[in-house]
Amino acid sequence: MVHPENDSQYKGLQVNSGVNSAPTINPYRRARARRQLSVNDYVEGILKGNVSILGQAVTLVESLAESHQQIAQEVIEKCLPYSGNSKRIGITGVPGAGKSTSIDTFGIHVLRQGGKLAVLAIDPSSERTKGSILGDKTRMEKLSLEPNAFIRPSPSAGSLGGVARKTRETIVLCEAAGYDNIFVETVGVGQSETAVHSMVDFFLLIQLAGTGDELQGIKRGIMEMADGIAINKADGDNIDRANLAAAQFRNALHLFPPTPSKWVPEVHCYSGYYELGVPEMWSMIDRYFEYVKSTGYFEHKRNEQAKYWMIESIDEQLRNHFYHMPEVAALLEQKELRVLNNEQSSFTAAKDVLDFYFERLRK
Ligand code: GDP
User: Which of 9, 83, 215, 308 has the smallest number of Cβ neighbours within 10 A?
Assistant: First the structure.
């Protein structure tokens, strides 16, 4: 016997057609369940200039997961033949010098001449401050609206060497995606300039006028690396002071040995915020590229950098292999104690640990 309500003749309840099903709360949610792209998907997407795929590939480069790294390395390898065709420009300066304001303005200036621009950053401190303070989209308001600009904050995980390597690998991907201008931003207070210097063609140091100390805590070594010095905030009643600072910098540069390229670094005043003197300043960079391409130094430096990064990569992997071996870590701890207690010298302790490591490798 059928329950009356289940009877097909039953009329007590009826289903109204109602409204169409409501939209899901987050319409973008489905994107997360994206299928895993293959190496070729990445490479094809990048070569077509697909920004979303480029962004995902950069995320893989930055990932610490072994499986991501494997894919990333294959993607990089396949993109390499399509890379290299860009002007790589490093931009440094102390916090507050006006790097992001300037990059915003420089970027628009560069894009007006055609082509595409990628803005990357190296900020090893972002690990501590949680979240990058550099290369941030919100700090580059004009550029972030440009379809031909790709802005990527600093990779945040790992040592300076690791962060720098990831940025260098990202350069390869961006170039393969057709970005013919690459800016690499870094904060001018520490070691990161050396890393940036080793991956760019032109190194621009942004300075300020009128803060008393002419060198503003910028180490002499950083000034020696600079191919150009740009005195920012040359606007309003700061113009005279900027010109004075420029003269001081020119004098200081005279005391430095010639640069390896024989290019004589220039000093220019400009205002990133009010967009004054930017074409004049930028023409220095254009002239630099013409010069180093005519002398062959451009190629020479890129080759030197490629060798440097190979050695860096070997160093990094050797170090990782050594320090991540648990027995080595345990022995190191013991040896540290002995050294601290003056029971053994640093050098013999180091030798013991290394001997142990090499012995383990042989087994
Ligand atoms: P960053 O820390 O080097 O990236 O510096 P920001 O670009 O964030 O600039 C620091 C401060 O200097 C901000 O308040 C900017 O508005 C200001 N600033 C940047 N460029 C100029 C400029 O050309 N002229 C003036 N007067 N102020 C500027």
Answer: 9
Q: Is the CB of 141 under 6 A from ligand 1?
A: no
The CATH number of 37-82 is which of 3.40.50, 1.20.5, 3.30.379, 2.60.40? 1.20.5
Of all protein residues, the one whose alpha carbon is nearest to atom 5 of ligand 1 is: 98
Q: Domain 84-295, what architecture?
A: 3-Layer(aba) Sandwich (3.40)
Token reading at 345: 């010298």
- Domain range summary for the chain, segments of one domain joined by +: 37-82, 84-295, 325-362
- Alpha carbon of 102 to ligand 1 centroid (Å): 8
Which atom from ligand 1 is nearest to the alpha carbon of 95?
Answer: 2
Tens place of pLDDT per residue across the chain (363 aa): 566 666 666 666 556 666 666 656 666 655 555 568 999 999 999 999 999 999 999 999 998 888 999 999 999 999 999 999 999 999 998 888 899 899 999 999 999 999 999 999 887 665 555 444 555 556 788 999 999 999 998 877 567 777 888 999 999 999 999 999 999 998 766 677 788 888 999 999 999 886 555 455 566 778 888 999 999 999 998 999 999 989 988 988 888 888 899 999 999 999 999 999 999 999 999 999 999 999 999 999 999 999 998 998 898 889 989 999 999 999 999 999 999 999 999 999 999 999 999 999 998
Spacing, Cα 42 to ligand 1 middle (Å): 37
**DSSP-derived pairing of the beta strands 87-93 and 202-208:** parallel
The rounded distance, in Å, linking the Cα atoms of 49 and 173 is 10
Pocket probe mutation, ligand 1, options 101, 105, 136, 211, max atoms within 8 Å of Cβ: 101
Structure tokens at 127: 């690990």
Contact 186, 192 (CB under 8 A): yes
